[in-house]
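Fill-in record for Transcriptional repressor.
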Amino acid sequence: MTTDAAPHLFSASVETLLARADELCAKRHVRLTALRRQILGLMLEANAPLGAYDLLQRLQAIQGNAAPPTVYRTLEFLMEFGLIHKIERLSAFVPCTHTLGRAPCHEHDADCVHASQFLICRNCSSVTELEDPTILASIVTASQKSGFRLQHTTVEVEGLCAKCVALA
């Protein structure tokens, strides 16, 4: 597999987010390689949750020699560095709109809790990422009462998005 192929060009808005991802990776002393950039760009371009095999098909359309292990390793890297999230309910991945959309409010350290909250539409499978500090505060308080050391939270809430409610 080669990652030196000419990069797929994305829209200006996606390129801006990819530049932000590149800055975040450099700050953490890791590289957003051409392949990582390509897969993240495909996810940003899709504007919808994508499964690993959906990503593989999109990647193969650009560079035909991509294989499943390559995609899975890339997804693991992107998750590890907070650039994407896995939506367990859908077995799909979405870009982290909060990490890519603005500068993080602090540097991540061992005691930092990464909190993800998602609204998942049962009808159209759209996913909206929330950033509600009161949800995290409630979880932290409940965890502390139990003597549990919290490191990561993901809250997935299922229902109908505003668009699907309007159609009903």
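KEY FINDING: Strands lie at 84-87, 92-95, 114-121, 127-130, 152-159.
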